[in-house]
Amino acid sequence: MATVVQHEKEQQNQTDQMTQAERSMREEELSFYSNSTNDYGDDNIWGLLSGVGGNIYEWYDFAVYGLLAPEIGACFFPKSSEELQLINSFGVYLAAFLMRPLGAILFGEIGDRLVGRKHALVFSILLITVPSILMGLLPTYHTWGVVAPVLLVLLRMMQGLSVGGQLAGSYVLSIEQSSSRSRGFRGSVCDASSVGGFLLASAVTTITRSILSEEQVDVWGWRVPFLFSLALAPILYYIVGNTEESKLWSEAAAEDQPLPEDAEDAAAAGVVAADKAVPEKHERPAVVDLMSSPFRRRQLAGMIGVLSAVSSSFYVLFLWTPVYLSELRGIMKEKEADLINFFVVGMQMFFIVLSGKLSDAFPHRMDLVRIGLPGVIVACPAMFGMFEGESWFGYVIAQLQFGFCLSLIQGSMAAWEVELWMADPTLSFTGVAVGHNIASTLFGGTMPLVATFLFYRANQIIQEEENPNAWTLLWPRLLPGLYISVLGCLSFYCISCVVRHPHDVRTGDSKLQQAVIDENRKYEERKKNRANKAKKQKKLKNLEKSLNEGLLNGENHEHEDHETGSGGGGGTNITTAAVTTAAAEQELIPYNPPTTTSDTKNEESMTTPPAIL
Predict the structure, then answer these.
(1) Centroid of chain to Cα 606
(2) Helices and strands, counts by H and E, the chain
(3) Cα–Cα distance for residue pair 262/584, rounded to 1 Å
């Protein structure tokens, strides 16, 4: 008992020494640790299938453009040099990424505040289907002139707007429907399905280039993969139509509605958690609520930093590497690069699911991430170094070892992202979407441009070398990989020193655990007090109603007695005394029995307070 009292005194002293901002940050952090639970997960299969199908479909449409960037660049930017065609094509790719944060805000509002996760997914799928088909039918520069590349940019921006909400929606819906023991696995299946979209895009692109000649692909064959999305849309709409809404979100949305007339009954029964039901908060957009909190801003910044290495590595491995090996270095043909990429992507899917399952066995979700990040820091430069060995076996192994290290991070990343924001289901969609898409835009969308610039810079360094040797010819080729290494160091710092996660309590020190226990105890006390207050208010309301009815009945009796000649107001006094006695029995108001004039003096003497000794 003495230890607990001493701990509370130390805690109070620390609180008194904090500034207002520090105190607010501490309170939000403890509240975050206390509320990051979800008891509604039932591992619903349709929620998982909708996330998987949606990711495959979205990322297929999104990846096809990157894999066909050389052909698209020649069709829509024909007056540029070969290098500028590729850069312009990747510039259009970046334009889609610039729309993703806006899509995150839009779909975050839809999924958190308006219609829920399920309908947000449906809307995002519809938004990417239309531009994909139109891109497959869009005339080239030779037909429409400068209008063609302008329309290409606009259609890609529509795709980016859709992807900004789809991936986050699939993560949130699947993880919120998961039990705590399977979040890592189900999240990894969603993440692997994103890779599956790249796999499907790589397969369709490879088949198209294998069946058609290079001239046919350059002229019209590049349209076939875009039009193939028409065959996938009906299947996906059927899956999403059978999906249930997240119960965690539905419960939170129900709690945040205005209280009904019988709110006292609901509060007394524990249906409405008064601490969490704040309808006024939702008068503002979700993104405003997200950015108004210092703790959430820190979480968002840390999340973006952690995802910097993952996003950039993902696009280097699956999008830029085939272009690097075929178009830039000329080591192999496009079909051969696509075939290797197809195999690597397939293995990556297996690695991600395996890592996700493994992450559920670790005490802390970020344990496996801390193992994978040093691997990525080393493996990416090593991959570009192995490309200089001119060995087909080396080309495959180089990409596989990098993909395996990346999968150790990706396997648990979906569950990790959602758990960061699970404390408030009316902000979780927005938090995941904004953080994920800002990171993808800053580090994933710019990666092809940065890597292409570093490649040409490496060529310039090598050409300017007066006395070339093995080292001076090798290290410039490592520049894209070294860029990934720098981002990997940033990610490791953010996940270790910036961002907070609910599992910190499980593996944290005794002070953190005790603080969270105290916060939980205070929350339960507040909840109990408010429930008791609601009960008393309801009883008082009923007593007031009875009192009014009693007074009315007493007036009626008095009126009747007056008419019959019995006179007096005794009926009113008797009724008032009865109601007052009932109130005293409910312990709401003190009971003083009716007194006569002769008893007043004795009553006054009894109620006089004694002298203070």
Answers:
(1) 67
(2) 28, 0
(3) 24
Q: Residue 602, Cβ neighbours under 10 Å: how many?
A: 10
The count of other CB atoms within 10 Å of the CB of residue 281 is 15
Q: Do the beta carbons of residue 314 and residue 444 sit within 8 Å? A: yes
Tokens of 146: 């400068």
Quick check: 421 and 171 in contact, CB under 8 A? Answer: no
277 Ramachandran zone, left/alpha/beta (phi>0; psi -120 to 50): beta
Burial 233-272 (b: 16+ CB within 10 A, else e): beebeebbeebebbbbbbebbebbeeeeeebbeebbeeeb
151 or 232, which is more confident: 151
Q: What is the pLDDT of residues 505-529, one digit of tens each?
A: 766 656 666 666 666 666 667 667 7
CB 124 within 8 A of CB 58: yes
Q: Which of 276, 279, 270 is nearest to 531 (CA)?
A: 270
Residues of the chain by 3-state class (helix, strand, coil), percent to 5 = 80, 0, 20
Q: What are phi and psi of 270, to 5 degrees?
A: 80, 15
Sequence letter at residue 23? R
Q: Which residues contact 518 (CB under 8 A, 6 or more apart)?
A: 8, 11
Residues 6+ apart with CB under 8 A from 355: 188, 368, 372, 407, 408, 409, 410, 411, 412
Q: How far is CA 416 from CA 12, 173, 385, 522, in A?
A: 32, 14, 32, 27
Largest CA distance in the chain: 129
How many CB atoms neighbour CB 119 within 10 A? Answer: 15
Interhelix angle 479-497/447-464, nearest 10 degrees: 130
Collect all residues with Cβ–Cβ distance below 8 Å to 582 and sequence separation of at least 6: 543, 546
How far apart CA 69 and CA 85 sit, in angstroms, is: 9
Structure tokens that stand for 436 in this block: 């994920």
Burial of 20 (0-12, 13-18, 19+ CB in 10 A): exposed
pLDDT tens string 310-351: 999 988 998 889 889 988 888 888 888 888 888 998 898 999
Structure tokens at 381: 């430069």
Other beta carbons within 10 angstroms of residue 468's beta carbon come to 11
Residue 435 has pLDDT above 60, yes or no: yes
In angstroms, the Cα distances linking 117 to 53, 207, 249 are 15, 35, 8
Q: What digits encode the pLDDT tens for the residues 16-40?
A: 556 676 777 777 777 777 665 666 6
Residue 73: both structure tokens together: 């660049």
Alpha helix (H) residue ranges in 360-446: 367-386, 392-421, 428-439
Residue 275, H or E segment: none
Reading the block at residue 265, the tokens are 């009954």
Q: How many CB atoms lie within 10 A of CB 589?
A: 12
Question: Residue 597, Cβ neighbours under 10 Å: how many?
Answer: 6
How does DSSP classify residue 111?
Answer: I
Query: Six-digit token pair at 433?
Result: 């979407």
